[in-house]
Amino acid sequence: MIVPMKKVSLVILEKERKSALRSLRKSGALHLEEKPGGTGEKIDGLLEIHGRVSSALSKLDSSVKPDDWNGPFDRSAANAVVDDILQIDSRIKELYASIGKITG
Fold it and tell me: d(Cα 49, Cα 31) in Å, to the nearest integer?
């Protein structure tokens, strides 16, 4: 039976990269594509954005997350939504702390 392939991402230490990829290739169960690593201001900025968006998404209940993320992307609107979510989460934490002081 043939089943559709699923995508996975692996984070591998540089010093273990060659041996890990060699082992995965030998298993024959994976098709590997290496993505070049990089550094720089642009990548750092993208990683920061990714972290903020991931943090914001983790705060949302699954009932408000769409199943499909296709469609036009407006970076400034996305940043505004992320800022709002993270500010609301921070405020919720402050309120819980205040409630703890009152009741505790």
Answer: 29
